[in-house]
Design brief:
By secondary structure, the chain is α+β, with helices and mostly antiparallel strands. It has three domains: 7-73, Orthogonal Bundle (Arc Repressor Mutant, subunit A), CATH 1.10.10.10; 80-143, no CATH class; 157-279, Trna Endonuclease, Chain: A, domain 1 (3-Layer(aba) Sandwich), CATH 3.40.1350. The chain is built from twelve helices and twelve strands. The strands form four sheets. It has a five-stranded mixed β-sheet with strand order 6-7-8-10-11, sandwiched between helices. A three-stranded antiparallel β-sheet has the order 1-5-4. β7 (188-193) and β8 (196-207) form a beta hairpin. α5 (77-92) packs antiparallel against α7 (113-121) and α5 packs parallel to α8. The longest helix is centred in the middle third of the chain and has 21 residues, at 150-170.
Length: 283
């Protein structure tokens, strides 16, 4: 299945959609077209069928499905390539797609070279614009078998707010670590101050429920925080038109964590935003 999609095959699928839009044809004719782009027509046709972009109707002709028509209507090639990636994951659920749950870096490290090439041509390998971030979150959700990415969207909203806040505070552009990997134990890498370039690792939590909301802190996140020389947690209340920030230290968090007892140890803890109600302020 790793050879089912590549840039060449994707472009061939786009060409096939154009051809059958102008003139539907029997499946054997589509497979006998020679080449579509630079790829043999049978491979392209098989991919288009697997993607759910084309189907064979009652007359035996290959026609575009509603999904295929929506792909053809996309104005930019990058958008079509991104749709192809999402649809191939949904269609065949390849094992390498599970790496997207851990961030872009892990996905690109273990995906087949053809898939990495599609990501590169789709502007996904290093893009950090809203559409690129939404793509990676959607891909991770599909890999987990989820459709609702609302929680991811809220988290990304908080991360973007921290990126803007830190850029303004330090006059340096921070690094969006969580976009590439969620295994580092923090989301944003900034610095202490304008005059102090010592690294500052920031974990970000956000809630649209304001002080009625809560956040989850994992054991891994906590142990990472303790091991770092400079750590800060940003809590964002995004329930208002003007979001408010509570910047917390290790000591601020310590009092709200459970203690291991006997042979038991905690793995994740839920902490209410209200516990830090007096710390929120407009940035």
């Amino acid at each position: 299945m790793s050879e089912l999609l590549s840039p060449g095959i994707a472009y061939g699928c786009f060409e096939l959609l154009d051809l059958i839009e102008a003139s539907p044809m029997p499946l054997e004719n589509a497979r006998g077209l020679g080449k579509l782009g630079v790829i043999a027509a049978p491979r392209v046709t098989n991919c288009a069928l697997a993607l759910g972009w084309v189907e064979v109707n009652y007359d035996g002709n290959v026609i575009a499905t509603a999904r295929g028509q929506s792909v053809r209507a996309l104005p930019m090639t990058e958008q079509r390539l991104r749709r192809a990636l999402l649809d191939i994951v949904e269609a065949v659920n390849p094992p390498w797609a599970q790496n997207s749950r851990f961030g872009r870096r892990r996905f690109l490290q273990y995906a087949p070279v053809e898939i990495v090439q599609v990501c590169d041509e789709a502007g996904l390998a290093d893009g950090a614009d809203d559409d690129s971030v939404a793509f990676w979150d959607t891909l991770a959700a599909r890999a987990r078998g989820l459709r609702d990415v609302q929680l991811n969207e809220i988290g990304r909203e908080g991360e973007r707010l921290t990126l803007m806040y830190e850029a303004s505070r330090t006059k340096r552009q921070p690094k969006w670590v969580a976009l590439d990997s969620n295994e580092d134990g923090y989301d944003i890498l900034s610095q202490i101050a304008i005059e102090d370039s010592s690294l500052l690792c920031i974990e970000v939590k956000a809630s649209r429920q304001g002080l009625h909301g809560s956040f989850f802190l994992t054991r891994h996140e906590w142990e990472t925080a303790q091991s770092l020389r400079n750590f800060c947690m940003h809590l964002w209340d995004v329930s208002k038109s003007a979001p408010e920030l509570a910047a917390l230290t290790i000591d601020d968090l310590q009092n709200h964590l459970p203690a291991d007892c006997g042979s038991g140890s905690w793995d994740v803890v839920k902490v209410p935003f209200a516990a830090f109600s007096k710390r929120f302020e407009a940035p």
